[in-house]
Amino acid sequence: MATKDQPKPLMPHATATWLVDNTALSFEQIAEFCGLHILEVQAMADDLAGSKYTGRDPVHSGELTQAEIELGQNDPSYVLKMHKAPVEVTRTKGPRYTPVSKRQDKPDGIAWILRNHPEVSDAQISKLIGTTRNTIGAIRDRSHWNIQNIQPKDPVTLGLCSQRELDAMVAKAAKRAGITEDADTAAPARNDREKLIEELRAERDAQAKAAGEAAQEAEAEAWLARKREAEAAEQKIDPESGFI
To answer: Which of 150, 123, 146 is nearest to 134 (CA)?
Structure first.
């Protein structure tokens, strides 16, 4: 089996399609090298899925060598080794990419941000949602061509961004705008709960103190009553005869 740390081809399905069509490698070898399930490779070989992908030559891209392929063809148990790991493609500039299926949801997400976080700039919204400032402006001033059908919806729920990205954007905008939470309103529920607990604790302590004082008074009164009874009994006795 290949090591878990071995990188996978840049385009695993397209690479698997090419290997199925151009080599005698086993399905298991191809699946392991491409990081796919063996049934996916089987489907490609049966022309159930391979027609969806254009084959990509891993030898031409440098991910495999012909010698490595021959080793695999000669030994079905041989695990192919990546010759050159693909260069990770990162996007550093330009608008955020959004799948076609979700692009129709962008106006709803933009409207939600404009309504709930007016401190966020158009540039931030554009970067988060992957839209243009013209679109944002049109939604803000309600001149958008489809404004009647736009319903503000949480962009996280719509799948346009993650909750972490949204929170980071809002926090950054709030800091830039100098917006700070008031200590008296930041957590009213927590403050009310703590206040209630303090009141109950004080009431409990007061009741315990009152009960203790009452017990002490009752004990003192009982002692005093017993003392008075004893004194009254002594006065009834004749000290000379010892009789009452």
So the answer is: 123
Q: With a cut of 70, which residues of the chain have pLDDT below it?
A: 1-5, 48-52, 87-103, 179-197, 200, 234-244
Nearest Cα residue to 117 out of 155, 145, 66, 91 = 155
Q: What is the token pair recorded at 103?
A: 């692009």
Rg for the chain (alpha carbons), in Å? 41
Alpha helix ranges (H) inside the chain:
12-22, 27-34, 38-45, 58-61, 66-74, 100-103, 106-116, 122-125, 133-140, 163-177, 188-235
Distances (CA, A) of 111 to 139, 142, 156: 7, 10, 13
Measured distance CA(101)–CA(112) in Å, rounded: 19
Q: Are 82 and 6 in contact, with CB atoms under 8 Å apart?
A: yes
Nearest Cα to Cα of residue 43 among 20, 66, 22, 10: 20
> Rounded to whole angstroms, how far apart are CA atoms 224 and 2?
93
- Residues 109, 159: Cα–Cα separation, whole Å: 9
pLDDT of residue 86: 73
Query: Please, what is the angle between helix 12-22 and helix 27-34, to 10°?
Result: 160
pTM: 0.38
User: Tens digit of pLDDT for each residue in 68-108?
Assistant: 999 999 999 999 998 887 765 555 555 565 555 556 889 99
User: In this predicted structure, what is the pLDDT of residue 183?
Assistant: 42
